[in-house]
Design goal:
Structural class of chain A: mainly alpha
Radius of gyration of chain B: 22 Å
CATH architecture of the largest domain in chain B: Sandwich
Strand order of the largest sheet of chain B: 2-3-4-5-9-8
Shape of chain B: elongated
Shape of chain A: elongated
Order of helices and strands of chain A: HHEEH
Helix content of chain A: over 70%
Number of domains of chain A: 1
Largest interface: A-B, 18 and 14 residues
Oligomer: heterodimer
Largest sheet of chain A: 2 strands, antiparallel
Number of helices of chain A: 3
Strand content of chain B: over 45%
Radius of gyration of chain A: 17 Å
CATH class of the largest domain in chain B: Mainly Beta
Chain lengths: 83, 146
C-alpha cells in the first residue's frame, strides 16, 4: 500500500515537471517572453518566433521520451521492491 | 515503446490543442489592449515627391501628395487616420483622412503642397493611424528635395 502511494507521488512529480517544462516552452518562450527572445537570432530566425513555430514541438518530443524513460526507471525500481 | 510512452503520445496532442487555444486567448487579450507605437521616417521624407515612408517593425506607412490630395497607404488595414500640419508656432490643423477603396488607402485634400512647393521647403507633420488594438503615432518633417 505504502509502495503504491510513493509510486504514485513520484509519478505525479514527473508529470508536474513535464507540465512545467511544457508551460515554460510553449507559453513562456513562445508568447510571454517572445519579444526579448526575438533579440537573439538562431540560424537566421528570431528565437522567440522559432520557439513558437518549431522549438516547442521539439521540446514536447524530448519530453515524451524523457517521461517514458523516467517512468521505466520508476517501474523497475518498484518491481524490484515488490519481489 | 512501453505503455508510458504510448500514454504520453496520446496525451501530447491534447496538450498541443490546449496550448493553441491558450495562445489564441492570450493573443486576443493582448490585442484588445490599446498600445501606442511610434513610427519613424525611413530615410529622408519628401511627401511632394512621393518619397516618404514611416516605419515601425513590419508596419509601414507611405505618405504622398498628388495635386493637393495627401494620401496615406499602409501595409496593414487601418481603422482611421488623421494627418496634422503643424506650423512654426506649434499650431495644428487636423485633416481626418477618408478611406479610399480599402482600409489600406486613406486621403484628404490638404494645404501641404502649397506650404512646401519649393525646393528646400520643409514642414512639420503629425500622423495618428489607428489600428485594431493600437495607435501608431508619428511626428516628422517633410522636405522638398526637387
Amino acid at each position: 500500500m505504502e509502495n503504491k502511494e510513493t509510486y504514485w507521488s513520484e509519478n505525479i512529480r514527473i508529470i508536474s515537471i513535464c507540465l512545467a517544462i511544457w508551460f515554460v516552452v510553449s507559453f513562456g518562450f513562445g508568447l510571454i517572453l517572445v519579444e526579448p527572445l526575438n533579440a537573439i537570432h538562431l540560424g537566421g530566425y528570431k528565437l522567440g518566433f522559432w520557439f513558437a513555430q518549431q522549438g516547442a514541438i521539439y521540446a514536447f518530443l524530448v519530453l515524451i521520451f524523457w517521461y517514458g524513460h523516467k517512468m521505466n526507471e520508476l517501474d523497475k525500481k518498484y518491481d524490484e521492491g515488490n519481489k | 515503446m512501453n505503455k508510458h510512452m504510448k500514454v504520453a503520445f496520446m496525451v501530447a496532442p491534447f496538450l498541443a490543442i490546449l496550448g493553441y487555444v491558450g495562445a489564441d486567448f492570450y493573443n486576443e487579450n493582448q490585442a484588445a489592449k490599446t498600445k501606442i507605437i511610434q513610427l519613424v521616417p525611413e530615410g529622408h521624407c519628401d511627401i511632394i515627391n512621393q518619397s516618404c515612408v514611416l516605419k515601425s517593425g513590419e508596419f509601414k506607412v507611405n505618405v504622398s501628395d498628388e495635386g493637393g490630395v495627401t494620401e496615406v497607404n499602409s501595409t496593414f488595414p487601418l481603422d482611421s487616420a488623421t494627418l496634422f500640419l503643424v506650423d512654426k508656432d506649434n499650431n495644428m490643423t487636423a485633416y481626418p483622412l477618408g478611406m479610399q477603396k480599402s482600409p489600406y488607402y486613406w486621403r484628404s485634400n490638404t494645404q501641404l503642397r502649397s506650404l512646401v512647393s519649393n525646393k528646400g521647403d520643409s514642414y512639420k507633420l503629425r500622423l495618428i493611424a489607428k489600428i485594431k488594438g493600437g495607435q501608431y503615432i508619428s511626428e516628422f518633417y517633410t522636405q522638398t528635395t526637387k
